[in-house]
Amino acid sequence: MAAARRPVLAANWKMYKTAAEAAQLARAVREGARDVLGAREVLLAPSFLSIAAVAEALRGSGIGLAGQNLHHEAEGAFTGEVSPVMLKDAGCTHVIIGHSERRQLFGETDEAVAKKARAALAHGLTPIVCVGETLAERESGRTMEVVERQTEKALRALSTDQVAAAVLAYEPVWAIGTGKVATAEQAEEVQAFIRKLVNRSHGQAAAAALRILYGGSVKPDNIGILMAQADIDGALVGGASLKADSFLQIVHYAAG
Length: 256
Ligand code: PEP
Description:
- By secondary structure, the chain is an alpha/beta fold.
- It is 43% helix and 14% strand.
- α1 runs parallel beside α2, α1 packs parallel to α12 and α5 runs parallel beside α7.
């Protein structure tokens, strides 16, 4: 990856771990990641109910805290939802938006993703916007078309500065939780394409600053080759982030 972009290693704990388990894992990550934090950004995304306990475990550590979703309104009659104001109040710095599980299982549309990204930024949260094609879309040659639509819709209403400050995650749906990691070449091809799209829509400076993560079966044994690619600026990690040992190996990757 380009030297000017600080790598991001983000853990998505999905619907795993009680508050006590999440706090324990956060303490282990805090202890084990201490030596890389100047050079690398480490983020943890626990479930909503564990955010308070993880915030406490991370206090003063320099490790970021992310929600896994949000509602675009600041407050209102939206039973079961969590607002950007609430995430910020609980200590979050980031929020994952448009994860493929949200798009596929909970019907989140490109329009909803765009609204959420705007709302996150408006409330001082860095959005981690996820894009990526399904297996059927890849096999029918539509990867670039799908990624282009998702990226452009998510970023369209954002200013140049907002795009530069945001994080994007390319997560091919067929690689999430399946053990089938995209090859470094496949990931780089799409991520370089995304950066070109951003260059076209928001200019060279925003494209050069935007961190683009890869997500999909990242493990200690494949992170190095992924991070050696010019347009891969970090990883969004699901399964391998649920144990301190494997996540810390990922955090301590050596590119190449
Ligand atoms: C994810 O949930 O964003 C993800 C990439 O999961 P996994 O690492 O388990 O494929």
